[in-house]
Structures are given as structure tokens and as C-alpha cells.
Amino acid sequence: MHIWKKNKKSLRLISLLAAVIIALTLMLPSFAAKTAHTVKVGFFPLGKFQYYDGAGNPAGYNVDYLNKLSQVTHWKYEYVKCANWVEATALL
Fold first, then answer.
1. Residues 6+ apart with CB under 8 A from 54
2. Where does residue 43 rank: exposed (0-12), middle (13-18), buried (19+ CB within 10 A)?
3. What are the pLDDT digits (tens) for 27-62?
4. pLDDT value of position 92
5. How buried is 50 (Cβ within 10 angstroms: 0-12 exposed, 13-18 middle, 19+ buried)?
6. CATH architecture of 35-92
7. Half-sphere exposure of 68 (CA within 13 A, CB side)
8. How many whole angstroms separate alpha carbon 7 and alpha carbon 16?
9. What is the three-class DSSP state of 38?
10. Element spanning 24, H or E
11. Of 2, 15, 23, 71, whose CA is between 20 and 30 Å from 88?
12. How far is 9 from 13, CA to CA, in rounded Å?
């Protein structure tokens, strides 16, 4: 009976260590995301999805989505002016 209690304590300790290691591993991506990255986005008029506003700035659903995404990823976006999808894929 004494051996079972000793093994039970060891099992608890191993389980606790495993939980701590898993928790620390899951937190690593959030620390890594703090560094800023710049992502180039090929930008061409495409209806309400993406267009240039009156001041010539990129606007639309795509810009709104990328702005929300940047709040989580901490990425910065550089919009590269393109005529169409084919030119965007060639440039980027």
C-alpha cells in the first residue's frame, strides 16, 4: 500500500509538470507575435471589397478586415497599387 501512495504522488507531480510545460508552450506564440512584421498587399479596385476613397487611401471590406487582423497579429500592411489581380501576383 505504501508503494501505491508514493507512485500516486509521483504521478501527480508528473501531471503538474506536464500541465505547466503545455501552458508555457501555448503562451509562446503570443510572445512571438509582439514583433512587428510588414506585409505587402497588392491593392487594386474591386467594388466595395477594396477601393480608393476620396483622399486616395485604400478602403473597403478588405482594408477593414486587415485592420482588425492587425490588432491581433501586430502586423503592419503596405498597400501596393496595382491595376488588377494579374499585376498584383506578378509584383508580389
1. none
2. buried
3. 666 555 556 789 999 999 999 999 999 999 999 999
4. 77
5. buried
6. 3-Layer(aba) Sandwich (3.40)
7. 5
8. 14
9. strand
10. helix 2-32
11. 71
12. 6
